[in-house]
Amino acid sequence: MRINGVWHRSLRVDEQDGWSVRILDQTRLPWEVVWLRLTDENEVAHAIRTMQTRGAPLIGATAAYGVALAMRREPAALEAVCAMLAETRPTAINLRWAIERMLAALRNLPPADRAAAAYAEAAAIADDDAATCEAIGRNGLPLLQEIAARKPGERVNVLTHCNAGWLATVDWGTALAPIYMAHDAGIPVHVWVDETRPRNQGAALTAFELGAHGVPHTVVADNAGGHLMQHGQVDIVIVGTDRVTRTGDVANKIGTYLKALAARDNGVPFWVALPHSTLDLRVADGVREIPIEERSQAEVTDLTGRTADGRIETIRVAAAGSPAANPAFDVTPARLVTGLITERGRIPATEAAIAAMYPEKA
């Protein structure tokens, strides 16, 4: 997507040396645009754990390049490197999917051939993600076109939670891809951006990239969504996801479940955008079976922001001595999901529909 009018991917091989990897340091956004250079698998693992790079599809592609970086130095360490990278984040299935794809491509090769093959496979994963997200945008666009046709001359109000744009993928994004295409097609789309506590991915990242692309948007407190829906100010909810079960249950950033409940109560369509790499057909019951990452208490008790004089500071906002719990995701049952926007089309969030759309996975 665009930064200062220039099109970027969120992950790329460094143009100068041809082997290291560049990512946007998302912990520095929206205050600074900093491209990090990653040179080995340990730096990749650190970037994923600390959320310098984040978003389910993007961490899968980044981990794939982590394998490639490792193969330059220690091609015999394939299994150990893949196991280490697979443990960096537990909830997003794209990470395990990418690692398993790298293992399948490299395991039976002679060690001397693994580095070149690893870079080729990582590039293929990244290109696939970009093409997949563009297709998700095309398949989601008609939903916004239909709303616009029903209310000519009025804006189309979309509510989204967390960040599921190009910063969470290699390019385009999942939930934001239809929004970008609608905006570029001249549809008067407006996005309600949930701040998405505790890390504020909405306020910091979604707002940043929508602003960079020129899409009208408004940041709202996480608990404002239900109120907006009650007053007819939300036409559709579109979110991304970190894992979708074979029965259509959806794991996404904490707070998504509450948006789905409010949408159901107010008759607002609740759509989930996902690439094929986010499907986990080994899991049936999302609430019981999907592991939910518990992150640091400090993400809840502390806030980071820019002071009036331009300094980036972290302050504590919780009472001294108070512990905090920080489940990073929740699961929205399939019964609350209007439908899934995939690169192959739009389908109901049902086991039969998913199996029919992805027979090779079933």
From TrEMBL:
Pathway: Amino-acid biosynthesis; L-methionine biosynthesis via salvage pathway; L-methionine from S-methyl-5-thio-alpha-D-ribose 1-phosphate: step 1/6. Keywords: Amino-acid biosynthesis, Isomerase, Methionine biosynthesis. The record marks 162 as: Transition state stabilizer. One of its GO terms (biological process) is L-methionine salvage from methylthioadenosine. Transmembrane segments: none annotated. Gene3D superfamilies: translation initiation factor eif-2b, domain 1, Translation initiation factor eif-2b, domain 2. InterPro entries: IF-2B-related, IF-M1Pi, IF_2B-like_C, Initiation_fac_2B_a/b/d, M1Pi_N, NagB/RpiA_transferase-like. Pfam families: IF-2B. It comes from the Bacteria. Substrate binds at residues 54-56, 89, 201, 252-253. One of its GO terms (molecular function) is S-methyl-5-thioribose-1-phosphate isomerase activity. Its EC number is 5.3.1.23. It catalyses: 5-(methylsulfanyl)-alpha-D-ribose 1-phosphate = 5-(methylsulfanyl)-D-ribulose 1-phosphate; 5-deoxy-alpha-D-ribose 1-phosphate = 5-deoxy-D-ribulose 1-phosphate. It is an enzyme of class 5 (isomerase). The active site is at residue 242. Signal peptide: none annotated. Catalyzes the interconversion of methylthioribose-1-phosphate (MTR-1-P) into methylthioribulose-1-phosphate (MTRu-1-P). Also catalyzes the interconversion of 5-deoxyribose 1-phosphate and 5-deoxyribulose 1-phosphate. Part of a bifunctional DHAP-shunt salvage pathway for SAM by-products. Belongs to the EIF-2B alpha/beta/delta subunits family. MtnA subfamily. This is Methylthioribose-1-phosphate isomerase.
